[in-house]
Every structure is written in C-alpha cells, then in structure tokens.
C-alpha cells in the first residue's frame, strides 16, 4: 500500500483520489498512544480550530464529536471538503512545512480533541513509525485531492504556448500547488494572469512575488542558526537534507524554483536503481521532498542564494531580496543550468519553441507534430524515446559521429529500433525561423554539407549544463569551467566533498569531477552528512545555540555510524 502511495506522488498527472487512504481511522491503541504527545481539550460546537492561510497550525485528533474541513473555491466562497469523525485527524502536508494552509477546520458539535503542537508532532513522527506512516499517507492524499478537484488553489489565465504562461504553470506543477487553467483565445492577446482565491488578480507575476502571495515561500528566520544549510534541492541536495535531518541536525534547504532540480524535469529515468519500469523525474523529486518534510527539513522556496561568507566561525548566506541566513555548515548542491545553442534569435524562442525538459506538459505542444531533440547524452535519449510516443516524428541531432560514447546502450538500442526517430549524426542546427514563436528549423550535416529545413515548431535542447556557481566566485576555489573544486589537495579536511573553505562542502553536479548521474548525486548527498557531522563535532564551540536534539546528535557523531542506519 505504501508503494502505491509513493507512485501517487504527482508527476504531471494526478491519480484517482483514494478516500480510504486520505481519511483513515486510527486504532484505539494508536489513539491511546497519541495522548502522550498532546493535550486533551473539550471544544464547543462551531469553534474554528484554524483558518485557511494560517501557518504552523496544530494537528487535532478526534476522541468525540467531529470536525468540518473546508477550503475556498472561486471568488472566495467557502467550499466544504470533508467531515472528520472519531479516531480521525486534521491536517494536510502543511503540517510538515511552514506554508500557509489550503484548508480550515472547525468543530461540528461539542467535541473532545487531542491537540498536538508542531514540536510534539515532530517528536511523534520520529518515535511512532506506524502512526507516522499513516499520517504521511493521509496528508499526501489530501493534498492530491485538492489538486485533482482543483479546489483551494488559483486560476492561471493565458495562452498555453506563451513563455511566461509556461513558466507559471511549471512553477505550480513542480511545487504541487492546486490550480486551474483558463485558456484565452490567441486572437485576444493577454499577458498571463493568476486569479487568487480571494479574487485578486496578479498580472504576469514574478515567481518570488507569486510564491509570497500564495504562502509557498518559507522564508527562514534571520535570527536562527541552522546546523546545516543545503543550497539546491536536486537529488544531491534532497539526499543531504534527508540524512542530515533524520540524524537530528536542524536543516534548511534553499531552492529557487521547486524541489527536484534538473532531474525533476526529466520525462523518465529508467536506470535508477530500484525502479525497473522507470520513474518520472518530477515524481522522484516529490518523494524526496516529502521524505525531507517528514524529518523536519525547512525549505526556503523561490529564493536563490547570491553569496556566502564567513561570519564569526559561522557562515552567512545572503538570499535574493537581502535576507540573511546563519548556518554552521553549508552543503553546496546548486547543480547546473542548461547550455544554450549559439544561434541568432535563440533567446527569443526560449519557451516559445525551445525547451529544456520533455515532460507531459511540453508533450501537449508536440502532439502529432515533428520535433527536434538536440544532444547525445542520456537526457536527450530519454526525451527522444518519450516524445516518439506522442509526436509525429523525432529528429535527434548530435554533433558526434555516433551515440556510443555518450549514451547508455539501452537508449541507443531503443532509438535505433524506433521508426519514429531519425538520428542525424555529425549535424547541428544553423538557423531558427519565426516571428514571435518558432516556426522552422534548418540543420546541416557537417560531413556531407547537406542542409535540411523543416517547419518544426518545437526543439528540445539537451546538450549539457553549466554549473550554478556564479554566487560562489571569490569565495570557493572553482575549476576553469566554474565547477567547485573539492578533495584532499584543495579541501580544508581529508574529505572528497570538502571545498577550499572550512565548513562548506559540495556535492552533485556542481562539484568538479563528479559523475553526472542521479544515483551518484543521491549517493554524494547522503555520504557528505558524515563529513558534516565530523566537522560540527570538531567545532563544538559553534553549537552553543543549537537545539538540544541537534547538540546531542553532534556530540555523538564521532561514535555513532549513522549512515548505515538510515535508508533512503
């Protein structure tokens, strides 16, 4: 059943709602155990326990009486969702983050409830495994219901092939935020708008502004000192966060768009261990995100780090907007950004025909049309195989003479055997045509000089990436390509992931000489936590303000082999 739940985590479509999993009944024995984590309260009829848009609400377990769950529908009208009865409990995924709630709760009839506060809930999630899994399962399915029924969210208005519209929709999908879409006829040009549940309209909002308005942003407290701050929420960063938090360290993750990183935009990952039929990149990212929330990781979404500097034995991270974060250790997992083709008009066609991800959202634009995929790596091969199932034909363009050295053999075999994929080796695009949107593409075979022009409107560019290290120039040692240099000859300690500055580590694609694979990134993110523990244990003078749980974890780090006990 838990595997079914995992498979239900959103990719680009939402599975049918399961009320039996969303609203389970606790056993009487579980109910008795829960009393130790909260306080029993007698609550009168029609008492609001918490309203929509509140943060850090408590969880309520029903002993007697009932609770009405409601949200907002269009034009700020109240919408009834569910009646909770004895041995059931309140809360959605916002129980495990600091985002605003999408639902509200009030009693129906005089009720007797167990109130479990946030600190008590975190203790519960660590100590009571069977109850913790039941709570996680229920809260995920409740969030999926809001997405499926498009309740409690927003309305995105615009034209689906508009670049700004696609950016906003991608933000909603990747963050799992409930939303509806309203397509405007192309003869009526309008900038994309977001209609909020309270009736306000945001015209072409910036991502940070939108995230703040919706409560998706979880801005960290500048007065707090975190044990470890992870910059980047790709596979490496999420793995580091899960392992750090599960071992008792106060953990913050800083992410500019949404959890998942580049892997979150992959149409399908088929060679990741444990998933014989493959897994959508976005689904993998959602699973890891939820797993991190379970262990109490804080996420600062929609804010990029712009600098880091030493600060009295700690590290001071500065985020966009000027917000500062204090932390004892830093794990740089900021990954890489997509490389672009050196062509005239290229920037004009980004998200107007040129894309860097081939997911179900982009595939809607390609149905029954010819498309081009540029690149010879696994990401390009996965995209070509995926798009061959929905488009009229896929042209795979690579500069090399073959795919043998850059692509996994299973993908090469699939491409060679597909009648809907044509491989063009020794070739490259030389011209893009169109006015506001891409309308045609020309490419040349450098070996023969033959040129081809086709009325192709969608090109997927997957030619590698450049490291997201601009914010680290002048702070860490970087190689000639901008990747972070780590290891014995450069690092402040004998660690594969140590950088040139004490207390700062680097993992995943951002690290020089790293293997650009999801499995490798996850491995590095999980292993680096043992180095963080050792660093904190060797610098005990920096933990004076640490929470008791984190201090205990740090003090026992040198004697407890934590990594062997945690399974990702």
Automatic annotation (TrEMBL):
Q: Which Gene3D superfamilies match?
A: FAD/NAD(P)-binding domain, Jelly Rolls
Q: Top EC class per UniProt? A: oxidoreductase
Keyword set for this entry?
Flavoprotein, Oxidoreductase
Where does the record place the Cyclic nucleotide-binding domain?
29-142
The protein's matches in PROSITE patterns, at most eight in alphabetical order, are given as: CNMP_BINDING_3
* Its EC number(s): 1.8.1.9
Supply the Pfam families for this chain. Answer: cNMP_binding (PF00027), Pyr_redox_2 (PF07992)
SMART domains from the UniProt entry: cNMP
One example GO MF annotation: thioredoxin-disulfide reductase (NADPH) activity
Q: What is this protein called?
A: Thioredoxin reductase (NADPH)
């Amino acid at each position: 059943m838990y595997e079914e739940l995992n498979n239900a985590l959103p990719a680009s479509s939402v599975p049918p709602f399961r009320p039996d999993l969303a609203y389970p009944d606790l056993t009487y024995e579980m109910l008795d155990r829960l009393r130790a984590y909260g306080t029993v309260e007698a609550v009168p009829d029609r008492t609001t326990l918490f309203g929509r848009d509140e943060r850090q609400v408590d969880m309520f377990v029903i002993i007697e009486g009932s609770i009405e769950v409601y949200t907002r529908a269009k034009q700020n009208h109240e919408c009834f969702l569910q009646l909770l009865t004895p041995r059931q409990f309140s809360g959605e995924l916002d129980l495990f983050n600091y985002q605003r709630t999408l639902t509200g709760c009030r009693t129906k009839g005089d009720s007797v409830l167990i109130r479990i506060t946030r600190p008590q809930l975190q203790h519960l999630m660590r100590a009571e495994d069977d109850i913790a899994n039941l709570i996680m399962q229920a809260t995920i399915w409740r969030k999926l219901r809001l997405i499926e029924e498009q309740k409690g969210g927003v309305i995105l208005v615009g034209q689906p092939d508009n670049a700004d519209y696609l950016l906003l929709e991608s933000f909603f999908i990747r963050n799992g935020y409930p939303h509806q879409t309203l397509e405007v006829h192309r003869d009526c040009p309008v900038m994309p708008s977001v209609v909020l549940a309270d009736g306000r309209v945001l015209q072409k909002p910036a991502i940070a502004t939108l995230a703040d308005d919706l409560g998706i942003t979880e801005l960290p407290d500048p007065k707090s000192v975190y044990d470890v701050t992870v910059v980047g929420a790709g596979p490496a960063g999420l793995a580091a966060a899960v392992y750090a938090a599960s071992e008792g360290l106060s953990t913050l993750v800083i992410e500019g768009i949404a959890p998942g990183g580049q892997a979150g935009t992959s149409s399908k990952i088929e060679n990741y261990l444990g998933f014989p039929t493959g897994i959508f990149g976005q689904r993998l990212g959602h699973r890891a995100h939820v797993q991190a929330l379970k262990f109490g990781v804080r996420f600062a979404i929609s804010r990029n780090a712009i600098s880091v500097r030493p600060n009295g034995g700690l590290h001071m991270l500065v985020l966009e907007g000027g917000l500062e974060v204090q932390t004892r250790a830093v794990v740089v997992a900021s990954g890489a950004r997509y490389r672009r083709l050196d062509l005239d008009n290229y920037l004009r066609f980004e998200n107007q025909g040129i894309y860097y991800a081939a997911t179900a959202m982009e595939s809607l634009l390609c149905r029954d049309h010819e498309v081009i995929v540029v690149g010879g790596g696994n990401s390009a091969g996965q995209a070509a195989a995926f798009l061959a199932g929905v488009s009229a034909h896929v042209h795979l363009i690579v500069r090399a003479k073959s795919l043998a050295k850059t692509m996994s053999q299973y993908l090469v075999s699939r491409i060679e055997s597909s009648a809907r994929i044509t491989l063009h080796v020794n070739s490259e695009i030389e011209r893009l045509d169109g006015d506001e949107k891409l309308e045609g593409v020309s490419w040349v075979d450098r070996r023969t000089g033959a040129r081809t022009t086709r009325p192709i409107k969608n090109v997927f560019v997957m030619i590698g990436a450049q490291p997201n290290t601009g914010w680290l120039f002048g702070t860490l040692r970087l190689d000639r390509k901008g990747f972070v240099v780590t290891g014995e000859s450069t690092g402040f300690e004998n660690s594969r992931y140590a950088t040139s500055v004490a207390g700062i580590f680097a993992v995943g694609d951002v690290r020089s000489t790293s293997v650009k694979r999801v499995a490798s990134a996850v491995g590095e993110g999980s292993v680096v936590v043992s180095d963080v523990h050792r660093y904190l244990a060797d610098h005990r003078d920096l933990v004076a303000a640490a929470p008791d749980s984190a201090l205990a974890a740090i003090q026992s780090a040198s004697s407890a082999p934590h990594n062997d006990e945690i399974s990702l």
